[in-house]
Amino acid sequence: MSPAAGSPGWTRRRFDVRKRYIAGVGDAGVRVMVVDDHPMWRDAVARDLAEAGFEVVAAVGEGAQAIRVAGPVRADVVVLDLQLPGISGVSLIRGLLAAHPGLRVLILSASGEQQDVLDAVKAGAAGYIVKSASRAEFLDAVRRTADGDAVFSAGLAGLVLGEFRRMASTAAPGTPRLTEREAEILSMVGTGLSYKQIAARLVISHRTVQNHVQNTLSKLHLHNRAELVRYAIEHGLDSSAQPASGPAESTPKQ
Amino acid sequence: MGRVDPQAPLWRSIAVFRSASLAYAAYLLVIREANYSHWAWAWVVLAGMAGWTIVTTVAYAHPARRTWFVLAADLAVTAGALLSTAALQYPRSLALATMPVTATWVAGPVLAWAVAWGVRAGAAAAVILGACDISLRHQSLAGTYRSTALDGAVVLLLAGIVVGYMSALATRAERALQRATELEAASRERERLARHIHDSVLQVLALVQRRGAEVGGEAAEIGRLAGEQEAALRSLIASDAVPTPPSGESDLRALLAAESSPLVSVVTPAEPVLLTDAAAGETAAAVRAALDNVRRHCGHRARAWVLVDDEGTGVSITIRDDGPGIPPGRIEDAAAEGRLGVSQAICGRIRDLGGSARVTSIPGAGTEVRLRVPRGGKPGLDAEAV
């Protein structure tokens, strides 16, 4: 699945990205790739991003092509429509993250089928926003995704909360659980409160709210990855040729 | 479109039957040599039968070659082989109704006619061959009724009728199955197309809404209308994809989907939220009452969120608006004045389900109605207004 993007290459690229953030470069430094098979949307989104000062490094309409170019164009953020012909959103996200592990995926979807969105977020997407969101909301979401924040709409908070409730009811060992505070904050996001409003209500900092939300997503990603690895080992797909040590990002994702 | 030949298995079994019968006829020829006046010639006839078995096996393998000519020839050749017994066996053996040289092989064309043309043709072929069989024993025609010579003919007739009936039945069943498969494939394709079209329509509506809002003026109104339709179509698709819950239970998500609009976000888990029919209906009614309150008190531009949280032992529903909030004591005053909106329509309903309802309001920062409905109807908790 992972194309020729060699591992030394992406390690360097990741470092470049970090350095840019440390240097404090604004939107102008953020390299965005747009993936949408709908030409009108692709153009509109690319134009909005360019006008706002983002660097649109690629706008493609096809999943396989997106996976091919994500590394070479050194995208930081990919704005992705889930409904692409010929490839499921989940395999596309896994392919993108395998090809270019530093990438952050923001889902921009029209139909927003709940299970699709949840699966995409579990596969590693950093956020989700509906296409009916306003331009300002959208640009803010891209900005926050580039900054490493989880972009949670109310709808996504409800899905993630529901997923944790579902996992809790199965009581399988190793399933992640929400802390009471995390559940409380997810419920508040689910009722449309902004991070700022939540921070004011709970008398905590805006950053703490953000961290709690980010944590819920990390738990879900980590759990999903652990499940995949467990599945691979159980089904004898674990290749011993892969280096056992190494960063979590190098875990083979199929 | 390449159709499957529904009768192919029947024709294959006729070929198998013929080969097996041929082996049986050869076996009978070996052990009953004493019955034959021209034993060597009987082997020649058997060789001819073997040749014809191969010819029919090949001919019947393909639908295009199952012509009336081949079927008629089949009957004629078989009748010939059967009648040749008259010249091969001793008259004494014939009169005793020993097996003719063809033995059970004689049933081949009966089965073929029955499969090809149905019950009547099968019966006709059986009558013709049965008549040949009986005519072999013409010396004692008067005794036919009491002899076993009739047995063979009767069995042939039965085989013709039963196989003819079965063949028609199998063909019908096969066609019905094929039609069902085609229908299923067609509806799957339609669903796939519908999903694609729905997504395209949603994309365009969202685009119109977005651009409209940016341009402003009359375009903003068009954009708002597009947004409404977008929300309606999305909830329609969502409720379409919901699996049917077990009888007696309802998925609360499906009941609340209709409330979704550009101003009202209904936030739910991806899995069904099941409550008993009555509880789900009452809960949805309470949520609708709460949303009506939002519209009445906060105006038509107020936004609202409905969060459904399935906690396992019960379901929590939070309805929040971004309106001006309710001044303290307003709800109690309203109840005292006989205007029972919040008290009755929301709290009363939920209390009847054994749940609790709580209204929290921060003046200037909206109102939050929190409902909790237990599963398995626990004793009532008091509704409280804060």
Summary tags:
heterodimer, A: 254 residues, alpha/beta, Rossmann fold, 10 helices, 10% strand, globular, B: 386 residues, Heat Shock Protein 90, 2 domains, six-stranded mixed β-sheet, two-stranded antiparallel sheet, 13 helices, rod-shaped, disordered C terminus
Q: What is this entry, summarized?
A:
Chain A is α/β, with parallel strands linked by helices and 254 residues long. Chain A has ten helices and five strands; from the N terminus they run αβαβαβαβαβααααα. Chain A has a five-stranded parallel beta sheet with strand order 2-1-3-4-5, sandwiched between helices.
| Largest sheet properties of chain A | 5 strands, parallel
- Helix content bin of chain B: 55-70%
Rounded mean pLDDT score of chain A: 79
| Computed Rg of chain A | 18 Å
Number of structural units classed as domains of chain B = 2
What is the 3D form of chain B? rod-shaped
What fraction of residues of chain B sit in β-strands? 5-15%
Placed side by side, the strands forming the largest sheet of chain B appear as 2-4-5-7-6-8
Taking all Cα atoms into account, the compactness measure Rg of chain B is 41 Å
Number of strands of chain B: 8
CATH class assignment of the largest domain in chain A: Alpha Beta
What pattern of helices and strands is seen along the backbone of chain A? HEHEHEHEHEHHHHH
Report the largest inter-chain contact: A-B, 38 and 44 residues
Described by its quaternary structure, the protein is: heterodimer
* Average pLDDT reading of chain B: 83
The CATH superfamily of the largest domain in chain A appears as: Response regulator
Q: Helical proportion of chain A?
A: 40-55%
Shape descriptor of chain A: globular
What is the CATH architecture term of the largest domain in chain A?
3-Layer(aba) Sandwich
Number of strands of chain A: 5
Alpha-beta classification of chain B: alpha/beta
